[in-house]
What we know:
heterotrimer; B: alpha/beta; nine-stranded mixed beta sheet; disordered N terminus; C: Rossmann fold; six-stranded mixed beta sheet; 8 helices
Amino acid sequence: MTSQAELDKLIRGDYAAGFISAIESDTLPPGLNEDVIRFISAKKGEPAWLLDWRLEAYKKWLSMPLPTWAHLDHPPLDFDEVSYYSAPKSMADRPQSLDEVDPELLRTYEKLGIPLHEQEMLAGVAVDAVFDSVSVGTTFKAKLLEAGVIFCSISEAVHEYPDLIKPYLGSVVPQGDNFYAALNSAVFSDGSFVYIPKGVRCPMELSTYFRINEAKTGQFERTLIVADEGSYVSYLEGCTAPMRDENQLHAAVVELVALPGAQIKYSTVQNWYPGDENGKGGIYNFVTKRGVAHDNAKISWTQVETGSAITWKYPSVILRGDNAVGEFYSVALTRHMQQADTGTKMIHLGKNTTSTIISKGISAGRSSNTYRGLVRISPRAENARNFTQCDSLLLGDTCGAHTFPYIESRNPSAMIEHEATTSKVSDDQLFLCRNRGIDPEKAVSMIVNGFCKEVFKELPMEFAVEAGKLLEVSLEGAVG
Amino acid sequence: MTDAVTSTADRAAARPTPVVEPLAQKLAAQAHSLAEQTAASSDALSAWRQAALAQLARLPFPSKKTEQWKYTSLMALDAGHLVTQAPDHANAPALPEPLAPWRLVLINGRFHADLSQLPPQGVSLTRLDGSAEAPLSIAEDALRTPFAWLNSAALQDGLLLTVADGVALDAPIEVLLLGSADVASHCHTRLRLQLGAGSRATLIERYIGQGPVLTNAVTEITTGENSDLVHYRLQAEAADTLHIGSLILAPGRDSRAASFQLMQGNALRRNDVRVLMTHSGASASLNGIFVGRGSTHTDNQICIEHRVPHAVSDQLFKGMAGDKARLVFNGRIHIFAGAKGTNAELSNKNLLLSPGAEVDTKPELEIYNDDVKCSHGTTCGQLDAQALFYLRSRGIAEPAAKRMLAFGFVNELLSALPDEAVVEWARPWLERALTEAEHA
Amino acid sequence: MLEIKDLHASVAGQDILKGLNLSVKAGEVHAIMGPNGSGKSTLTNVLSGRDGYQITGGQALLDGHDVSELDPEQRAHAGMFLAFQYPVEIPGVSNLEFLKASLEATRKAQGKEPWDAVTLLKKARETCKQVDLDPQFLKRGVNEGFSGGEKKRNEIMQMLLLEPRLALLDETDSGLDIDALQVVARGVNSLRSPDRAIVLVTHYQRLLDYIVPDHVHVLAGGRILKSGGKELALELEQKGYGWLTDQEDAPA
């Protein structure tokens, strides 16, 4: 067998998280208008200010053109074919504890390897699970509250902590920021909210798992994390979806606020259904993630992305305060017909701000993998520093790997360095491995893991293991 | 919520009428009327001009929303540059010392044989003034900007140089392009160089001039099998001039092409360089020094297209922006599917010399083949403070010390220039440009 | 020539020099010794006007003029020369080009006759030989890819050409083998004359075997703790710095 044929086999792997759960749900018929928004808001018993905020976002969205600058090719999206709200039926009256949660739902999460029952939890990780549009349960809540940490669904936070939500919601990603963020602001269904009080180091990793189950639904979660002065939190996010022939829309917004001296580490392992070999089905992932780092604060984005038919995502850091630090570590693997246009924005406003970007793109099959990044140094950002390393690994000659870094410097004392390389898993490398008795599957996985090492080492332990496995599954064709 | 209006209808109703860019529209109208006048005249180039006119009609003028023009505004053309043609100088202005034994002089786009020293045997010169038919563009789609199509559609004069197979020139040919006017106006300059198989030649394009004149330049170069080309593009016009140029270079099989672009900023400088690697075994080397001074604008868009296997390209560009100058650089390496064995590198290094200056750079890789070796790197920073202090502690005043360091920054490029005459021109030019870069 | 009065200086907001007094007369060679972190390099950097070194009190006078009012190049023109502890690499700028610019500016400011290219090259070559440096180094970038010893000899070469009235040598001896040390010392000694002064900043007594100082000062905690003749250096060699700094710390 030629090494090309072996590569082909390796990258044809199936999707392990693609089962569909038989759960009755409350799903809104497709289509979007003001009434849908009123319905969502009423369903969640929201205060009037929030409904007004949503309607304002909707108005902005209506006037915005669909962005076309990304290196993506997809049929026009019909926003009237999407259902904007789906909740598991048994959730209609919000379970008061996990014992009240539909057992089928819990089994779904167990299948995904995310047990929600606390006794089964991996020690030290608190989980908020979002199923279709709503949060189904948050674990370890009580223990976190002891430390003063608030970790709950954002719907709950709207009721319980309006004083924390009101000033921060939309403060990082305004309603009209971009097309998808405006859509999310109008119809967001749920998501997670985290508040870490002054000087507190969050006692455990916080984690959210997202799953889209219902057909033809869009998922529009919204995450808000506020780390008060001098605090620290590490937050993990995981995503899966069933295999369906039609495309599903995911348009999330994540806002991070790191107040002076605070640190937020945000890690994502994204494994939405990527569609099949011929590009049928899969999630359209249009996500806006952004953080603001105040004086001496630090925000780190780490992501391992293997899923979605289309990824449009640029986790960014606004380095507002002096000495703020922004980091972006990313592995994006695309195969089949997947298309990813992803990267980051580092906006240097404060003095002595530093940012680091390490991006590793792996393309296989007939996929297209694009890094798009912006490093902007404002005139005030004395002594700002940026280092960017973008590497692409191509497996096969039918895929594409692209790099589009925008660098804008308006301060002479700033130092910016950008490097990009492209390489492939060569026949020689594979031959050497085989010559040393290593089978080609293992060899490719080794080479790819080596390629991603700099990013994996930034992930929290359990996620690093998961990310490694995910890449292996994506590459090796193991059936779930 | 049954009779609710759908969002699509809502969106259609709520969407404001598309924002028209008045300037882009205005320029398009001016370009059209200009091109139509010229295209109407009947001569040997009529059909070709008509075809270009059709292309011009198809291609919209760039606006703020156009990605490739993100950092460059055409506001500077608002004064009617496209309406008035720069005068055809009857009296020869003083010309600088030639850089080569053969020099062809174009003044405001018009060739002046009386001021020129014609090239030697083995090089044929055809005037593109409609008196004879001439093979014109390299390829139908070689030109990418409306300005280049306008140049074609409104073409009245230009030069085609053909170096015969096997001819090896031992000295460069210089084309001096002078643009000069007292009022907002334009001229089109057109150059085409064809190198025959196994030939060797050096072309120096030197642009000089002053006044509010827009030079809309198009240069196309094709080289034959196993040929050697050295090409210089020296853009040393005064700060009040405007220059929008296209360079298309298509190296032949197993040929070697080296291009050096040295330029200083002016009121508006935009260069679209396109290198078509359409023959295996070809190698192209692109180098440049860009100096931004005063409140000038310099935008270089370089695109190298590897369309066939086993071609090699390397690029090194160094930019320095002083005062309130802005330098824009976009360097794209595009590897087509099937272009295996490609080796392509790009390096862009920039210095910001003063607090008001700005550098916007975007190296791009677009790759559709795994059997390639590609890389790009870019840096942006300032002069090393340690080195500056070291020089000052040896008695060298700060401005001179800065210039020395700036020279050091570009020295690897300067010392790599293959022609001594150009080096001798370049050093004082750079000294002057850097001096101008210092002052507000 | 050099009069330092109650000099206070800070680096990045941290006080390093805390009331330093020193008087250097023409014809003298002074050695300033002291433990690491005592402020030796700060002193030379403050005197030559490096960015980031702030004079917070007192003054340093060169021929009666306050040096803080002079730019680094003006100090050089006034005859001050600093041999760097870590000579800076300047890729792309050749040694010769650099010397030419430096000598032109300095000689012009000092009202001396400028050297033409031939004279400069001749002098530079001779001086290279004097410090055992291959004249080929003149064509290379300033200190670019030079070894540690070559960089230090390059500093001495520059010093000999510039003929400063006040030479400050900042740990020029550190990292040198004995042969290179002798070369450096020879260079410095050849500069000794009644109208020049030399300040050697060093951590080791070794250099003073070859350049015999008229005065030795011990710098610690940002002040001169003790001054004496050349015998003080030998005493330091035997006893180390401890006996001095302990005395200083005792009352605290």
